[in-house]
Automatic annotation (TrEMBL):
<dbReference type="InterPro" id="IPR030393">
    <property type="entry name" value="G_ENGB_dom"/>
</dbReference>
<dbReference type="GO" id="GO:0000917">
    <property type="term" value="P:division septum assembly"/>
</dbReference>
<dbReference type="GO" id="GO:0046872">
    <property type="term" value="F:metal ion binding"/>
</dbReference>
<dbReference type="GO" id="GO:0005525">
    <property type="term" value="F:GTP binding"/>
</dbReference>
<keyword id="KW-0460">Magnesium</keyword>
<keyword id="KW-0132">Cell division</keyword>
<protein>
    <recommendedName>
        <fullName>Probable GTP-binding protein EngB</fullName>
    </recommendedName>
</protein>
<dbReference type="InterPro" id="IPR027417">
    <property type="entry name" value="P-loop_NTPase"/>
</dbReference>
<comment type="similarity">
    <text>Belongs to the TRAFAC class TrmE-Era-EngA-EngB-Septin-like GTPase superfamily. EngB GTPase family.</text>
</comment>
<dbReference type="InterPro" id="IPR019987">
    <property type="entry name" value="GTP-bd_ribosome_bio_YsxC"/>
</dbReference>
<dbReference type="GO" id="GO:0005829">
    <property type="term" value="C:cytosol"/>
</dbReference>
<feature type="domain" description="EngB-type G">
    <location>
        <begin position="22"/>
        <end position="203"/>
    </location>
</feature>
<keyword id="KW-0547">Nucleotide-binding</keyword>
<dbReference type="InterPro" id="IPR006073">
    <property type="entry name" value="GTP-bd"/>
</dbReference>
<dbReference type="Pfam" id="PF01926">
    <property type="entry name" value="MMR_HSR1"/>
</dbReference>
<keyword id="KW-0342">GTP-binding</keyword>
<comment type="function">
    <text>Necessary for normal cell division and for the maintenance of normal septation.</text>
</comment>
């Protein structure tokens, strides 16, 4: 799978601002600072597509990027919307704000017609926090397919990595869950993630 292009399309705070093209959507979600912007930049190889933000919790919009790709076994090019959701679980966002945030995100996730799956990002160095578990359980409950991506995997050694992945599965309560380790710094996991994306688009 080769990415051929990536471009910013739209930011939305309400439904009528979603882009109108009928493309499949792949969603990225995670706690603030989990490495989501870095992962989007590394995956698409378009630098600063998702601005690596030093102010967690600042972006409260749903951002749509159109990504074009070439899949080896498939003729012609494919495209999808990479959907970047605002980070959750940021302590400094007030309770009220958080409520508005979740309503808006939930509405999007529950009504999107062409949602393929959600990549939920979890920092490989830490056990999933309450907000991670909550989000994961909510997705499962609503029959939204989830792929867990364990970010910043370059920060720990290979042995500890296996242990961390086991801990993530245990905490989320699903033993047969697939957890994909990723390093934006080293582009590790990139071709695996692209394969998963490619598969979801040709089925
Ligand atoms: P976001 O808030 O989820 O978008 O997180 P960012 O992409 O802004 O990353 C948060 C911090 O983690 C930044 O300082 C990044 O440089 C760092 N970071 C992100 N991904 C990686 C990674 O794969 N490896 C390492 N070592 N650091 C990372």
């Amino acid at each position: 799978v080769i990415i051929t292009q990536g471009q910013y399309v739209a930011s939305a705070v309400k439904k009528d601002q979603y882009p109108e093209n009928d493309l499949p959507e792949i969603v990225f979600i995670g706690r603030s600072n989990v490495g989501k912007s870095s992962l989007i930049n590394s995956l698409t190889r378009v630098n600063n597509l998702a601005r690596v933000s030093s102010q967690p919790g600042k972006t409260q919009t749903i951002n749509f990027f159109e990504v074009g790709l070439k899949i080896a076994e498939v003729e012609g090019r494919k495209a999808f919307y990479l959907v970047d959701l605002p980070g959750y679980g940021y302590a400094k966002t007030g309770k009220e704000k958080r409520k508005i945030w979740s309503k808006f995100i939930e509405e999007y996730l529950l009504t999107s017609q062409r949602l393929q799956f959600v990549c939920q990002l979890i920092d490989i160095r830490h056990e999933p926090m309450a907000s991670d578990v909550e989000m994961f359980e909510w997705l499962v409950k609503n029959n939204i397919p989830v792929l867990i991506v364990a970010t910043k995997c370059d920060k720990i050694g290979k042995t500890v990595r296996q242990r961390s992945i086991a801990a993530i599965k245990r905490k989320l309560g699903v033993a047969e869950l697939s957890v994909l380790p990723y390093s934006s710094l080293k582009n590790e996991g990139r071709s695996d993630l692209l394969d998963v994306i490619g598969d979801s688009l040709v089925e």
